[in-house]
UniProtKB/TrEMBL annotation:
Residues spanning the signal sequence: none
GO molecular function, one term: ATP hydrolysis activity
One cellular component term from this protein's GO annotations in UniProt: plasma membrane
Topology versus the membrane: Peripheral membrane protein
Protein name: Sugar ABC transporter ATP-binding protein
Entry keyword annotation includes Translocase: yes
């Protein structure tokens, strides 16, 4: 018989103008991996922030190990045994790994901190979950995947009974994901529960015992994952059937719009060459760190190259900053929207129209109708969920922020559109919309660079795929040669 670890009943939470959660339930068993799924803005982050003590619910009750959990106090939740691993990790970069693991829980001997004891305990924890961590290394210098493991070990040092993971695989390579799964299996064996929030349904199917679905702030259902199909999950999340994930009707032209010749930058890229045609979707595959984003950033004027040439419509160009690239008809949806994308304190509407302000400001007056029509267009086509276009963008759910940035660059009517992981954190309904927008733009002659770590996505949207490895191009594949094996083979 399953033992209930956490039970949330009738939990509601409102923010000005939005009911983020409307009487939702969530029951997590001891030692289970419980998936939490739902579209962007469904309320997933809100409930996990309630469980982490960041927000206090407006109504409802939450019990943990049979006792009332209390609310709104982060320290209390940690002491009770709930830890959360956010997408942006919260480690102290200059501390050693074992110091981070034991942070807030430092062992003392006769009242004095004992580094030796801290290291011994950290080593014990690390062994328990079956991972190998460089305990003496400086944390900030390690890969994200390793840092994430440090976070998990830190949660264990606090004797957590429930570890909440918010999109934990979004910056991991396939191999690292496998490692994470192993760690999760080991946590289960020790009767520790995991609440796993993800938009990747394959992942949910593979790792979760049960799932809970939220839609528009409401509880839809909790079910066993076994025997549940991907389509059933999608239906439950979206409330309608989505069958055609990928629509490709565009046909690339033979008109070259971009040529990159032997592009290089010290420590980043070397000898990168490719061509891009009008109406073509050119995929870029490769492992994280292969140089795809760096290549995109050079094309968009965020860095200048040391070697090589960029030709747009046959003319040599060097972009010293993004506005020169924009003037040449290039737009880019960056990978890291927090650092490179949103203007956090401004409204979502402003965040969209920012790139095209010039078009509707005349004699220092804003043409409100024109501004509104652009905002409306992208609110509808990208299904952006916000209380109004004035809502401060940093208060939108992560996926909705991403959609707004996407809208911003579509509004520039680019000739070349660079998309760096455009669907990361985006729900399945909106993903489908984005794929059809990509197809539609290509049909209109826009040339698209599509950087994606999701192989099915890059294979199904692209006409050709450039595979990158260690900062250079390792293969260029035509559509008839696309296969996961070929891409992986050339990535490793
Ligand atoms: N601090 C806040 N102020 C105002 N509204 C907020 C705030 N936090 C969340 N919201 C709103 O609450 C709703 C639920 O957001 P939440 O972040 O919980 O969604 P989510 O399911 O995590 O979405 P995603 O998959 O995009 O991360 C959204 O409509 C969001 O705009």
């Amino acid at each position: 018989m399953a033992v209930v670890l956490l039970e949330a009943k009738g939990v509601s939470k409102s923010f000005p103008g939005v009911k983020a959660l409307d009487k939702v339930d969530l029951v997590i068993h001891e030692g289970e991996v419980h998936g939490l799924i739902g579209e962007n803005g469904a309320g997933k982050s809100t409930i996990i922030k309630i469980l982490a003590g960041v927000y206090t619910p407006d109504e409802g009750s939450i019990t943990f190990q049979g006792e009332n959990l209390g609310a709104g106090n982060i320290e209390n939740m940690l002491n009770r045994g709930i830890s959360i691993i956010y997408q942006e990790l919260c480690l102290v970069p200059y501390l050693k790994v074992y110091e981070n693991i034991m942070l807030g829980n430092e062992p003392c001997k006769r009242g004095i901190y004992s580094a030796k004891e801290a290291k011994r305990r950290a080593a014990q924890i690390v062994e328990k979950i079956g991972i190998d961590l460089p305990l003496e290394a400086e944390t900030g210098k390690l890969d994200i995947a390793v840092q994430q493991m440090v976070e998990i070990a830190k949660a264990l040092s606090r004797n957590s009974k429930l570890i909440i993971m918010d999109e934990p695989t979004s910056s991991l390579t396939n191999r690292e994901v496998e490692k994470l799964y192993k760690i999760i299996e080991n946590l289960k064996k020790q009767n520790i529960s995991v609440l796993f929030v993800s938009h990747k349904l394959e992942e949910i199917q593979e790792i979760c015992d049960r799932i809970t679905v939220f839609r528009d702030g409401q509880f839809i259902e909790t079910r066993d994952t076994k025997g549940l199909s991907r389509d059933e999950m999608v239906y439950s999340m979206v409330g309608r059937e989505i069958t055609n994930y990928y629509t490709t009707t565009h046909v690339p032209t033979k008109e070259k719009i971009l040529e990159v010749r032997n592009l290089g930058k010290k420590g980043m890229l070397r000898n990168v060459s490719f061509e891009l045609y009008k109406g073509e979707v050119l995929g870029f595959a490769g492992l994280i760190g292969a140089g795809r984003s760096e290549m995109a950033q050079i094309l968009f004027g965020l860095y200048t190259s040391d070697e090589g040439e960029i030709l747009v419509n046959g003319k040599k160009r060097v972009f010293h900053n993004p506005s020169e690239a924009v003037n040449a008809g290039i737009a880019m949806v960056p990978e890291n929207r927090k650092e490179q994308g949103i203007i956090p304190q401004m409204g979502v509407g402003y965040n969209i129209t920012l790139s095209v302000l010039k078009q509707f400001i005349k004699y220092a007056r804003v043409n409100k109708n024109r501004e509104k029509s652009i905002i409306d267009k992208y609110f509808t086509s990208l299904r952006i969920k916000a209380s109004s276009s004035e809502q401060i963008i940093s208060n939108l759910s992560g996926g909705n922020q991403q959609k707004a940035i996407f809208g911003r660059w579509l509004a520039t009517n680019p000739q070349i559109l660079i998309l760096d992981e455009p669907t990361r954190g985006i729900d399945i309904g909106a993903k489908t919309e984005i794929y059809s927008i990509i197809d539609e733009l290509a049909k209109q002659g826009v040339a698209i660079i599509m950087i994606s770590s999701e192989l099915p996505e890059v294979m199904n949207t692209s006409d050709r795929i450039v595979v990158m490895k260690h900062g250079t191009v390792s293969a260029t594949l035509n559509k008839e040669d696309f296969s996961q094996e070929k891409i992986m083979h050339n990535s490793l």
